[in-house]
Amino acid sequence: MHARQEEIEGVLEHLLPGATASPARLHEAMRYAVLGGGKRVRPLLAYAGGEAAGAERSRVARVAAAVEMVHAYSLVHDDLPCMDDDVLRRGRATCHVAYDEATALLVGDALQSLAFQVLVEEPLCERAADQLHMVLLLAGAIGSRGMAGGQAIDLASTGREVTLPELENMHIRKTGELIRASVLLGARCGCLQHGEALESLDRFAKCAGLAFQVVDDVLDADSDSATLGKTAGKDARQNKSTYVSLLGISQARQFAAELREQALQALNGFGDEANRLRQLIDFIVLRRH
Amino acid sequence: MHARQEEIEGVLEHLLPGATASPARLHEAMRYAVLGGGKRVRPLLAYAGGEAAGAERSRVARVAAAVEMVHAYSLVHDDLPCMDDDVLRRGRATCHVAYDEATALLVGDALQSLAFQVLVEEPLCERAADQLHMVLLLAGAIGSRGMAGGQAIDLASTGREVTLPELENMHIRKTGELIRASVLLGARCGCLQHGEALESLDRFAKCAGLAFQVVDDVLDADSDSATLGKTAGKDARQNKSTYVSLLGISQARQFAAELREQALQALNGFGDEANRLRQLIDFIVLRRH
Predict the structure, then answer these.
(1) What is the pTM of this model?
(2) Which of A276, B73, B256, B289 could pair covalently with B111 via S-S, beta carbons 3.0-4.6 A apart?
(3) Is B2-286 CATH 1.10.600.10?
């Protein structure tokens, strides 16, 4: 997995504009926001989804980069003073602290555009029409009904008690949709464009996305900032409802374990080609940061 | 032109999520930012580019909506306190004043995603591979080397004297690239995918984009806020270099007139099918707000 993470770093490094290309400060800040940190969960899931579908690695690399660029953009905007107002991310100063707010705003905007660019500038599957569908999948996953919508629901939820179904709806959009898209876009680079196998991957990805968030909540409640590389205990201080606040920490852990089981079951129809996906659900559920 | 503007309003109204769909506040704010105002210069250029290339109107409608969504997103982010900190836009409160900063940030983010979604969810030209190229054109036009890059250069230029070539470079990116993309994307819905005619449209669009900015500078220096529907005299107060500050107002007007001539010349190879484009360059150069 470490080798794969290094490969992802190289791909991102290559696809981001050089730090000296004009406008240099913006490009430098984009590279700061994307490179040199992060678990790269979404790219790893894209590669694993691609492997399950027999996809060419050079194609999946672009999908992996695109979803990580989107993820990085969402972190940069989420850390801004008008949102979470956070100063620490991946063990370093957040983008608006290292640069300035206006630059951080543009970094996020430009990373979103770059993600779409990366997704269309080379052929990623046999039929161009299928590639258009990949763009649609990403746009839907991160728009007002996906990731950005989840952020809006999160904003509206802060400071009030939400129900478990409300919390789930928020997280499915805020983090689940992009995680789901990562697996599916990887698979779509290969032979899986439709059908039962893709639906199985979809079930896996939905469980993985939700499990990721449940574990995030547990870690936020249970770790220190140095271990996490980001500010710990934030949810409780911001009076946010989480799986831990609603279920208690041991039941939240139990829920994550159940989601892991469901995710693994969804892969029953696959052989060894899905082993990376199986490893990743363990990585998601058993991680310490 | 008024009828066309109303048609554009209808298309945008239809393609934006309903104001009651969850998350309702975000969707309401997105509609506030896009609907009920604006000259719709970019959609008009898209329609005119489509007409010059014999494109189906229903296809061009999506391009027109996509470029206007991008434009609206850029205004919402540009008006934020960390950028221009403006309270008036299209004669109304800016999005972050009418809603709040966090919502305005997400409005811009989600509008960008929606623009890409609108561009891929229906076939817009004969070959899917050409449509992928349309997505690439838009992504390049608005990313770190296009619109967002122009904003970054603008930020870096504020408070210092820039040269005329620097100013031109900034504006080509900040406003020119999206205007150019509007014309070309419209044309690409029709029979023009490559070749000399498309290059002529490209020359037209480049002149139109620059003329638009020169006239903007003249109007900012020469009009009141009520006429403009946005804060007037802002450039001088922010100590920004403009075509007016560098050339003087009468030479700036002269420059706009020359760009109009060049734009019209670029259309020499076209017949009546380019009349809308000819009208639009007049609209751009002779407008009062």
Answers:
(1) 0.96
(2) B73
(3) yes
